[in-house]
Amino acid sequence: MASDPLSQVLTVLDARCVLSGGLAARGDWVRRFPQPNALKIMAVAKGSCWLVMAHLPAPLELQAGDVILVNGKHPMRLASDPALPVPETVWGDVQSVADIAPRRHDGDVLIIGGHVAIDPVGQNLLLDVLPALVHVASDTPQAPTLDWLLDQLVRENHASQAGAEAATASLAQLLFVQSLRAVLSTQADEVSGWLRALGDQRLAPALQMIHAEPARNWTVAELARGAGMSRTSFAVHFREVAGTAPLAYVLGWRMRLAEYRLRSASISVSELALEVGYSSESAFSNAFKRVVGRSPRAYRAGAATPRLGLTESAGIQPHG
After folding, report:
1. Domain locations in the chain?
2. At 111, is the secondary structure helix, strand, or coil?
3. Contact between 254 and 218 (Cβ < 8 Å)
4. pLDDT tens-digit profile of 252-285?
5. Which of 159, 134, 107 is nearest to 41 (CA)?
6. CATH 2.10.70 fits 5-190, yes or no
7. Which one, 31, 96, 299, 315, has least CB within 10 Å?
C-alpha cells in the first residue's frame, strides 16, 4: 500500500461503505432507530427532515444534500417535526425502500441509507475516534463533491448499465471517504486518537514516514526532524493530538498491519516478523501477544470467527 495513512487504515480495517436502501416519507411522520452498534451513513436526496439524538443540544434540521455519519452508540429518530410523539418504530407515512434511489416514490422526503462494513475486531477502532454525529451540511465547502456523488449514485441506480453494481460500490466508498475528509476539516476538535492525528498538518510528514516504512527502527528524533519540529515539541504535540506517544503509535500500527496480513495472506509468522520490523519470530510473537492478547498463530486460527472486546491496548494507539 502507498504511504497514504488514512487509505492504509481503511484497508487494514476492511472498511467498506454499503448503501442498502433508505426511506421515503410524506406529511407528518417519525421513524425511530435503535442504537445500531455500527457506523451508519445517511444522505438526504430530496426534501428536509429533523434529526433528534439525546446528546444533541437541540434537534438538527437536515436539508437536501446533507450527509451524516452516526457512530452507532446512540439511538436516534428522523421526523418531519421534532415535536411529534416518539413511536415504538414508525409513525405516519414512512416507507422503507429497498433501492438506493427508487425511480418512483410519492414521498416529500427521500433519504439514502447504509452502513460501513468493518472487520469486527477493528470496528471499535473507528467508532471510538469519531464523534457521535458527523454532519456534512449542503452549504459547506465539501458539499459540491458530495452532491455530485449523490447525483451519480441516483443515476447509476436508474441507468441499469453494465458495471452499475461496481460503480455504485465505488461511489459509496467515495461518499464515505469524503465524509471523513469533511470531519477532519470541520469537526477536527471532535475526533480523537489516530484519526485526529491523521488530520493534523504538523504531524502529517511523520505519519507518512511511519506508514511508508513501518518496519524501520524509528526514533522520536528522526520523526521530529521529518515533521520539522524539535524532539520535545514533537513528542508533546503528538501525545496531545493522538493520545499516545509516537513510538507507541508505531507499535500499534505494526500490530494492525500484522493482524491484517494474518487474516488476508498465507505469509509465515517468521516472514511477517521481518515485514513489520522484528529480527526474530519470537520477538514479534511476544510483542503481538502483549498487544493483541493472542499469539499470531492463535489469532490466525480464530480469524474466521474474530472476537470483539479486545483491550484498548489493541488499538492503533496502545498504552505502554
Report:
1. 5-190, 197-314
2. strand
3. no
4. 999 999 999 998 888 999 999 999 999 999 999 9
5. 134
6. no
7. 96
Please tell me the distance from the alpha carbon of residue 241 to that of residue 106, in angstroms, as a whole number.
Answer: 48
Contact 218, 209 (CB under 8 A): yes
Predicted local confidence at residue 102, as pLDDT: 57
pLDDT digits over 9-47, tens only? 888 888 888 887 788 898 999 999 888 778 889 899 889
Cβ burial of 54 (10 Å; 0-12, 13-18, 19+) is exposed
Cell 520477538 belongs to: 283
* Domain 197-314: top CATH class: mainly alpha
Domains 5-190 and 197-314 belong to one CATH topology: no
Vertex 180, ends 178 and 183: CA angle to 5°? 110
**Each residue's pLDDT tens digit, 39-78:** 889 899 889 999 999 888 899 999 998 999 888 888 899 9
Give, in degrees to the nearest 5, the angle at Cα 13 between 7 and 15: 75
Single-letter amino acid code for the residue at 85:
P
